[in-house]
Amino acid sequence: MKGSLLIAGTTSDAGKSIVVAGLCRWLRRQGVSVAPFKAQNMSLNSMVTADGAEIGRAQVMQAQAAGIEPTAHLNPILLKPGSDRRSQVVVRGRPVADVDAVQYRDHRDHLREVALESYHELRSRHDVVVCEGAGSPTEINLRRGDIANMGLARAAGLPVLVVGDIDRGGVFAALYGTVALLEPADQELVSGFVINKFRGAPELLAPGLEQLRALTGRPTVGVLPWLDGLWLDVEDSLGLSAARPATGLPHGEETLRVAVLRFPRISNFTDLDALACEPGVSVSYVTSPGELAGADLVVLPGTRATVSDLAWLRENGFEEALRRTDRPVLGVCGGYQMLAETIHDDVESRRGEVAGLGLLPVTVRFAPDKVLARPVGAHYGQTVHGYEIHHGRAERHGGEPFLDGCRAGAVFGTTWHGALENDGFRRAFLSEVAELAGRRFTPAPDTDFAALRERQLDALGDLVAAHLDGEAVERLITRGAPPDLPALPPGGAPHQPLS
């Protein structure tokens, strides 16, 4: 099997990333060399590859599904919003500019070439490349500069499957409208549909699928059922509304409650998935100080906008609550920087010297060059692997070492993402948190986070194998879009009876 396929979606969070991961695992099981690809990604959930490139965390997850080592070619263009109007542009793993939407237009021709070069590089190395679109292909205000959806499909001649989330409602209108709003040359590549998150009786859905085919001339190649307990690395905070790892019964006598501040520009919140996988650990994301009541551990997670989100924290009354609490506090990356005494930022926010929360004896200075690294260290006698993505450099002038960071009493800070995914370190940290919080909680001795994530990917492969038309998908990959797909006039369907 050799070829490519693009998975587009009616909306963000329709399930594109999940379908791509499932297809990668399904193809890998058949002995196919497969790679995921997302030309342009807008995400604050990123990771560092082995060669020091920053790419979207979802593409790292998909690479694991495919059984390959992630590289910058999987996600050559990453946009990291720092505000509603400006984003950092990361090209092949390295930041190159900080621009607004208008300025970005000056870069798009070059970035289109970068994306296509990476796509062709992957095609030369693998039998199949499964591409993921971004947002929706029918963002008609952005079509002219599109390089991730139909712009990529047209340039590379990719057949397209459109995923619709039936759980949102209006899935038939969304699927039909996606085709109808495209120009004819784009419509020629849209080869079918996938319905995601279906709950109900298939026989009740079947008449709608038949009418959708009559209206569009395109089949639905699969209906993926709702999968309880599914959690995987997602691209943005929309994923916080979906299921995260389920909490089991406590291994010890009590539950350990973790409250995570949901910053406006929260990043790398998947750091906390490993905590939520521990039996008896309850993780919640909070936006008001009152929700901290009863928490045994408060976490300040990563953020793309440290100084701005620190202002949000203060405006919403969290500073006083954090100063009053006698429970442990953990800051990760941007959250760690907030715990410092002073922040000097002439790079990200350009606000100069800003007072931090003063809970750790640390001074933070932002530098133009971003630190991208995969450090290895030790703590609690356990080996710890992590990854770093930050402009701020933290200098400790008191307290005790904690990984690369600082500890003062019950307040902990580190720039290392992913540290909690190390099973031995996580169990030791939770044991200390429970002791500091006065809880009779004991971490389970056998929770294997890497194995849990692998089982999630296997579940996606099973989902694709059981509920997608494998022969139809293979035909699209190897032969491309069918040559006789009908065009839909904008705003109207071919005149065909619905009965």
TrEMBL record:
<feature type="domain" description="CobB/CobQ-like glutamine amidotransferase">
    <location>
        <begin position="257"/>
        <end position="424"/>
    </location>
</feature>
<feature type="active site">
    <location>
        <position position="417"/>
    </location>
</feature>
<keyword id="KW-0315">Glutamine amidotransferase</keyword>
<feature type="region of interest" description="Disordered">
    <location>
        <begin position="480"/>
        <end position="499"/>
    </location>
</feature>
<dbReference type="InterPro" id="IPR033949">
    <property type="entry name" value="CobQ_GATase1"/>
</dbReference>
<dbReference type="InterPro" id="IPR002586">
    <property type="entry name" value="CobQ/CobB/MinD/ParA_Nub-bd_dom"/>
</dbReference>
<comment type="function">
    <text>Catalyzes amidations at positions B, D, E, and G on adenosylcobyrinic A,C-diamide. NH(2) groups are provided by glutamine, and one molecule of ATP is hydrogenolyzed for each amidation.</text>
</comment>
<dbReference type="InterPro" id="IPR011698">
    <property type="entry name" value="GATase_3"/>
</dbReference>
<keyword id="KW-0169">Cobalamin biosynthesis</keyword>
<dbReference type="InterPro" id="IPR027417">
    <property type="entry name" value="P-loop_NTPase"/>
</dbReference>
<feature type="compositionally biased region" description="Pro residues">
    <location>
        <begin position="483"/>
        <end position="492"/>
    </location>
</feature>
<comment type="pathway">
    <text>Cofactor biosynthesis; adenosylcobalamin biosynthesis.</text>
</comment>
<dbReference type="InterPro" id="IPR004459">
    <property type="entry name" value="CobQ_synth"/>
</dbReference>
<dbReference type="Pfam" id="PF07685">
    <property type="entry name" value="GATase_3"/>
</dbReference>
<protein>
    <recommendedName>
        <fullName>Cobyric acid synthase</fullName>
    </recommendedName>
</protein>
<dbReference type="InterPro" id="IPR029062">
    <property type="entry name" value="Class_I_gatase-like"/>
</dbReference>
<feature type="domain" description="CobQ/CobB/MinD/ParA nucleotide binding">
    <location>
        <begin position="6"/>
        <end position="230"/>
    </location>
</feature>
<dbReference type="Pfam" id="PF01656">
    <property type="entry name" value="CbiA"/>
</dbReference>
<dbReference type="InterPro" id="IPR047045">
    <property type="entry name" value="CobQ_N"/>
</dbReference>
<comment type="similarity">
    <text>Belongs to the CobB/CobQ family. CobQ subfamily.</text>
</comment>
<feature type="active site" description="Nucleophile">
    <location>
        <position position="333"/>
    </location>
</feature>
